[in-house]
């Protein structure tokens, strides 16, 4: 999957992918550049240049609804990280039955 989406890169015969988050069946996983898979113990995560800012916003907004927490985290990262910019798009996929 990462190769077809443009994440994988080859350098000196080695391959590395990008870091990204995957939600599946109510769980969140972080895929690191070396394809290591981690599941955050707090139930939320972030990645990229605004990661620390977004994590702080997610932690501080734990009582808000999920969609609102995402908006707060992205807006905070956009405000305080030069590498994060909107527009942000949200997509919800139907769960398989």
UniProtKB/TrEMBL annotation:
InterPro entries assigned: Ntn_hydrolases_N
Highest taxon above the source species: Bacteria
Listed name of the protein: Uncharacterized protein
């Amino acid at each position: 999957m990462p190769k077809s989406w443009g994440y994988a890169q080859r350098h000196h015969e080695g391959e590395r992918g990008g870091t990204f988050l995957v939600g599946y069946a109510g769980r969140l996983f972080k895929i690191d550049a070396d394809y290591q898979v981690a599941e955050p113990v707090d139930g939320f995560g972030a990645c990229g240049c605004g990661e620390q800012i977004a994590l702080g916003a997610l932690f501080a907004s734990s009582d808000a609804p999920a969609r609102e927490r995402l908006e707060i985290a992205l807006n905070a990262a956009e405000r305080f990280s030069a590498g994060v910019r909107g527009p942000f798009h949200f997509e919800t996929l139907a769960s398989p039955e």
